[in-house]
Amino acid sequence: MKTRERIGGKQLFCLIAVMQSGMNVLLTINPTIAAARQDAWLSEILAGAAGMFMVFVHARLSLLYPGMTFVEYVVKIVGKWAGNALIGFYMLFWYVVLAMILRQYTEFILSTILPRTPLLVPLLGLLLAAVYVTAAGIEVLARCAELFGPFILLGIFLPLLLSISDMKMINVLPVYADTGFLKIFEGSLPTMTFLGDCVIMCMLYKFVDRPKRGSRFVLLGVAVSSFLTCVSTFLVVAVLGSAQGAVITYPYFNLIRNTSYFDFVQNLDSLVIAIWIVSVFIKVSLYFFVCAHGTAQWFGVRRWRRMIWFTAPAVVAIALVPRDFVESSVIFPQRIAIPYILPYHMFGIPLILWAIAKLRGAGRPAAGKN
What we know:
Layout: H1 9-27, H2 29-36, H3 40-63, H4 70-78, H5 80-112, H6 120-136, H7 138-162, H8 181-195, H9 211-240, H10 242-245, H11 251-257, H12 269-299, H13 308-319, H14 325-359
Helix pairs in contact: 1-7, 1-9, 1-12, 2-3, 2-8, 3-8, 3-9, 3-14, 4-5, 5-6, 5-12, 5-13, 5-14, 6-7, 6-12, 7-9, 7-12, 8-14, 11-12, 12-13
């Protein structure tokens, strides 16, 4: 399945930074503070380090098979039967995660700005936008991320600067003494799981100009997302306190809602909602492209856009399975994403595949060639 579509390094950075930053600052701070309390910002640092290591593993694995996606090279590594089983597991994972992102987005919109709106309205609205940009191709999506990326990242960071004056450093003390490493590690798991989204790069390096250089931009994107999440968590604890931050569903949203600048700059929460919607749009579109394109490769469909007609209804059906916010945003991360998706799909399997590929000599020049 040949393609002329290409993603540049800056576009790749914007894709990764935007898709991870928006959901990280909104959805991971609460469970992190609930576990690590005032040391939640240390958990974010640990999660960032783990996320960058996962990027390194995914990049090393994909660079051994240039011009190929995960669906194509996994069969070469472990054989036809085991390879197809792994592809099936990963496709199931990507479909479910995409559906949960849509449901989490829908629950947030219904709870903040559209409380009496039927659930399907925001869900289908975002999905149709993702279908449109996906059908246009990965290059169009990358250009969207490049266009909106700087505004989204600045829109997340600048309101944080305005909240610095409200900090109470007593809220972040003592450091480490009251929690210890185990609690800090437990607090890092939600953010680590979201940063593990970079595993989808195994499907995208095929489209990257100069993939070796592109992996650096992915690392930078994860680093920027980790930095923004860490700063946001620190300020939530310092301004609101760990006790309040642990019980508020969206601590970052509440932090920004109460931020003003000499009564001149106010109501920043509306800006945050707009930024978050664009960030989720980029993430949903990227996952949708991976699902549609990956499914087409798996089943040997030459015109991959035809799989959009299968992917969209399947995702909607999965997104409607959770009965409420608790099942989509609490039970799913705690019982499925953290214990299963993070250690196996995002970390363990890519690491094992990389080791097997290296042992088999993948990426080495053929004997007799200069």
